[in-house]
Specification:
Elements: H1 2-14, E1 28-31, E2 34-39, E3 45-48, H2 51-60, E4 65-68, E5 71-78, H3 87-102
Antiparallel strand pairs: 1-2, 2-3, 3-5, 4-5
Helix pairs in contact: 1-3
Length: 107
């Protein structure tokens, strides 16, 4: 199952040309010194947003905060499996997340 989600995650990242996937055992994306998406060991994809956007998307997408290794990841939402059937839509969320971290002070 994890390998299948990794293929989906890689296909998702391939749709976005401004960044690339990093990490071997814990795949993630980062820019400006901030991670903004990741695939956890449970095969779940999380994407980071500002607090306001996070709340809106949790309601719109009927999802929850994202957890990785048992910890809630601040600012991240869990991307529902059903949404992964439309990678173009998820890629738009990922691009929005990239834009968000680029507004943060560089680390």
């Amino acid at each position: 199952m994890w390998e299948e989600k990794l293929k989906i995650y890689d296909a998702l990242i391939a749709k976005c040309d401004r960044f690339e996937r990093k990490g071997k055992t814990m795949p993630y994306t980062s820019a400006n010194g901030y991670m903004f998406s990741l695939l956890n060991k449970a095969g779940e994809i999380g994407i980071r947003f500002s607090k306001d956007v996070q709340q809106r998307y949790m309601t719109e997408l009927d999802t929850t905060l994202y957890k990785s290794y048992g910890a809630v990841m601040k600012g991240y939402i869990l991307i529902p499996d059903g949404l992964l059937e439309d990678l173009d839509k998820v890629a738009a969320y990922l691009d929005e997340s990239y834009e968000y971290v680029m507004t943060l002070p560089p680390k």
